[in-house]
Amino acid sequence: MDRPGAPRPRVAIVLFNLGGPDKPESVRPFLENLFLDPAILRVPGWVRPWLGRLIARRRTKAASENYAILGGRSPLLELTEEQGRTLDAMLAGEAVEYRSFVAMRYWHPMSDAAARAVAAWGAEEVLLLPLYPQFSTTTTGSSLAAWEAAARKAGLDVPTATLCCYHSDPGFAAATAALVRGAWDKARAELPPEVPLRILFSAHGLPESIVKAGDPYQWQVERSVAAVVERLGMDGLDHVTCYQSRVTPQKWIGPSTEDELERAAHDKVAVLVCPIAFVSEHSETLVELDVEYREEAERLGVPGYFRVPAQNSDPGFIQALRDLVLAARGGGRALCSYAGARQCPKAFGDCPHAKARTRVSALA
Ligand SMILES: C=CC1=C(C)c2cc3[nH]c(cc4nc(cc5[nH]c(cc1n2)c(C)c5CCC(=O)O)C(CCC(=O)O)=C4C)c(C)c3C=C
Ligand SMILES: [Fe+2]
Ligand SMILES: [Fe+2]
What we know:
- The structure is a single chain.
- This protein is of the alpha/beta class.
- The protein has two domains: 10-167 and 315-363, 3-Layer(aba) Sandwich (Rossmann fold); 170-307, Rossmann fold, CATH 3.40.50.1400.
- The chain is built from twelve helices and eight strands.
- The chain has helices at 27-35, 48-69, 76-90, 111-121, 137-153, 170-190, 208-212, 217-232, 257-267, 283-300, 315-331, 352-363; strands spanning 10-17, 97-104, 125-130, 160-162, 197-204, 239-244, 270-275, 305-307.
- The strands form two sheets. Strands 2-1-3-4 form a four-stranded parallel sheet, sandwiched between helices.
- Helix 10 (283-300) links the parallel strand 7 (270-275) and strand 8 (305-307).
- Helix 3 packs across helix 11 (315-331).
- The N and C termini lie far apart (47 Å).
- The structure holds ligand L6N33NVT and fe (ii) ion (2 copies).
- The site of one fe (ii) ion has 8 residues, from helix 12.
- One fe (ii) ion (FE2) binds next to helix 12.
- It catalyses: heme b + 2 H(+) = protoporphyrin IX + Fe(2+); Fe-coproporphyrin III + 2 H(+) = coproporphyrin III + Fe(2+).
- Pathway: Porphyrin-containing compound metabolism; protoheme biosynthesis; protoheme from protoporphyrin-IX: step 1/1.
- Keywords: Cytoplasm, Heme biosynthesis, Iron, Lyase, Metal-binding, Porphyrin biosynthesis.
């Protein structure tokens, strides 16, 4: 039994997210960081600095207009910090001392600052917890590569575990299904009874070439949708998985969310859009879904447009993260919370992200 007052072992939980600009002047350098990442812009190393800066410059106007709608900045950092505080509060009674740190990939605080803070706190263990339920080489894989370099630089050499993904985790599915159910009931109350309602599970898209090269993201998105639909238990539920936020001219995975709005207009069904790969509100939910796609739905004549809120600090969702943290630590799983082939596609062996990560490092 622990003696009262005895120091508890310290475990740092590092929350990975993408990050977003904190002021209008940060939009361009934020976009440069993003398009200079070899996990995002997969071109030979000698072209990347030139091409990455060019794409960032061209994207700055459109992105700045989106952030202007949000007051000139992304709300992602505040929301991620709140998720960390809520998680810490839920872990407060444990025998070890947990503290959350935020490591954003493309804007501050980034991995270097987070690794220095974790070292200064005196962490004896680290648990890397991506705020991406599905593993992609472009998100979690990229953050892992950045973290490894930052931890080395900070001289942080402690046992480190990674929760690679929780796409079908029962707690995540239950929390998400509860949010869907609440939004469904509100939408049904507003709609005339004869208008059918379809759920569009909308995930961030990816270039098709990245999926063909072995990225497990799309497979994991499909698993998340299946888990949430199963949890909803609604007979004959009309639903579809689709992909938003295309930003490059290459072919991206589909169907696109825009195409699904057209189909809904054609079928005369209202839509309930559920973000399935974002667990926080940010420009792609608050602007793309709430402003752009809503306007597009109205223009097309979709008979109703509703949205499920992102999880943010929803108690059910943070409880699911808490349970994942405790299971990952207790089980001593070094790399993957689902190391068994049950959750990972056979094509990627026992754990897709270990191979995917090697691929990202090889690109760097
Ligand atoms: C080739 C480009 C991109 C890929 C691939 C990509 C994958 C990807 N992104 C997220 C989640 C987020 N993306 C965000 C912003 C963002 N993403 C891209 C490009 C790609 N993303 C750009 C250019 C931007 C900047 C905004 C814009 O210009 O539209 C954000 C943060 C936004 C914020 O408001 O803070 C998130 C979160 C996922 C999950 C994903 C693939 C699985
Ligand atoms: Fe993105
Ligand atoms: Fe895995």
